[in-house]
Specification:
With 220 residues, the chain is an alpha/beta fold. The chain is 30% helix and 19% strand.
Length: 220
Amino acid sequence: MDRTSRYSDIVSNMNDYFYHILGCGAIGSSAAIQLARMGAENFALYDGDTVEQPNIGVSQYNMGDVGKRKVDCLSHHIIAITCKPLTIDKFHGAFPRDHEWQPMSEKNDIVILGFDSMAARLAAITFITNHRIKPFAVIDGRMGAEHYQQYILPKPTLKEYLKIWYPDSDSDPEPCTMKATSYCSNMSGSFICNAVRKLITNQPYDKKFSFNFPTMILVK
């Protein structure tokens, strides 16, 4: 039986899309691993960091990954789930760079933003939306302490993104991983994967919402 057989009646077209994970930390690694479990096999991973011990508690890495590049480790874990000799594009370094954005088409590129900073998000969106080929959708997942925000922009433009962007000085003063726990990152990845499922099966979805983990309150 295929690993997706238990939910093939819910979503069966994961491999029609190409998933660009921008930032392979808590949010990005959780989203990537869950997408792989859902049947996704087409990935491009972007991150300039290596795995450190504090990453183990909040991301999808283990102690054997410490000291290694995040993009290499995440690629290895995805391949272990799929049990297929996949070719995963890996980019170790700062984004954006001209050679790093390799879109497939406007119909099937899904970009997932998991950067730590708002400045990095804006730089990425500015670069991507200026490209001749635009992504099918951008899913922006933001974690501050134990509060998660998610924004979905189908066929995004810079003008649209600026409406939901704010500078780092206006965001939660804690770094996005300072108070994050494994349940925060895993839930965030679940929210992103649910959004992907709705997008690619043409189901209604919320373009923005926030979720507070201590109160368990979802605000749309």
